[in-house]
Task: inverse folding
């Protein structure tokens, strides 16, 4: 299980009731630069990460590799300031519009999708 | 398991080697309108769905609920014409830029993220 369960999180119960989590209790969260529209990265949130993202103004994920909460930018300085948060129609994906400081990707590129382009139409 | 395994798909083996799939053999795929930057929806692809997306010009997902390939628009008419495809730095997320005909969401809204806004900064 990723992080806390819905029941032990402070997430608004009305929101928690709409969330559809995977077997690990997580929901994919797409981070998008609010003004340019760039898709920056995809992370994972449990109820508590979503709660913190909604209430702290800083995008917070659940790190599957480290099994801990991860406030984007705490280590790198590449903070994501939260502008808006929406659930999709099924409640199984989160879209967070952010203002990204510096590169979003740990490789140093602006987005995580810059380096491995498989197809680009002419 | 979602759909075929990597070994039985015609996906370029060099791409298949970079894909990191979940326990069901699937990778999340973010569909974005190529010109406006709107994040339209998130679907799931296995190797074969990615192969078809790369080679047919039509966005193709694996439907987890129906357990079958799903060419977006085949039923609804709301086709996604593929403009570009990229993997992220970890190979565990796909970004597909598309030209979306009509609404992307089965509810009739332009994107799947239009109806359930949890937070919107002033």
Result:
């Amino acid at each position: 299980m990723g992080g806390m369960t819905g029941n032990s999180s402070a997430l608004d119960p009305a929101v928690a009731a709409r969330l559809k989590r995977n077997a690990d209790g997580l929901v994919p969260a797409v981070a998008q630069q609010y003004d340019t529209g760039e898709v920056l990265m995809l992370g994972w949130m449990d109820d508590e990460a979503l709660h913190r993202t909604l209430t702290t103004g800083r995008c917070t994920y659940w790190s599957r590799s480290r099994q801990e909460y991860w406030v984007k930018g705490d280590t790198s300085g590449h903070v994501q300031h939260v502008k808006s948060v929406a659930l999709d129609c099924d409640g199984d994906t989160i879209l967070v519009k952010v203002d990204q400081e510096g590169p979003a990707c740990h490789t140093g590129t602006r987005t995580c999708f810059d380096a491995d382009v498989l197809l680009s139409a002419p």
